[in-house]
Amino acid sequence: MLKVLHEGDAAKADILGRTASSFVIRCHSIVPAALGDLKLLLHLADGGSLDSVRSHRGAFSEPALAEMMAQSLSDLAYLHARCIVLLDIK
Predict the structure, then answer these.
(1) Which is the catalytic residue, given 14, 37, 51, 88?
(2) d(C-alpha 39, C-alpha 78), whole Å
(3) Phi, psi at residue 4, to the nearest 5°?
(4) Is 88 an annotated catalytic residue?
(5) From CA 89, how far away is CA 10, in angstroms rounded?
(6) Per-residue confidence (pLDDT) for residue 15, from 0 to 100
(7) 50-71, pLDDT tens digit by residue?
(8) CA distances from 37 to 6, 23, 25, 83 (A)
(9) What whole-number distance in Å separates Cα of residue 17 and Cα of residue 31?
(10) CA nearest 37: which of 1, 7, 17?
């Protein structure tokens, strides 16, 4: 997946470039673009949102929800240990 970060968002590219967690989208390459923008070549996560999965499969079981929360909290702990604060948690 190719994502364009506009001028002023370079810190996001730096953060993605420094992470190596199985729960964080992998950044394969960062390429300068026009007008100070950056192009990020990201791993394609084509599984859809949790809401779209729930819509097709029905409600998640309690063990599945517990596993998702454990993975999310593990990811947050990984980022916080590296002094990275995630502000876009949905």
Answers:
(1) 88
(2) 25
(3) -105, 125
(4) yes
(5) 20
(6) 75
(7) 778 777 777 888 998 899 889 8
(8) 4, 26, 20, 25
(9) 12
(10) 7
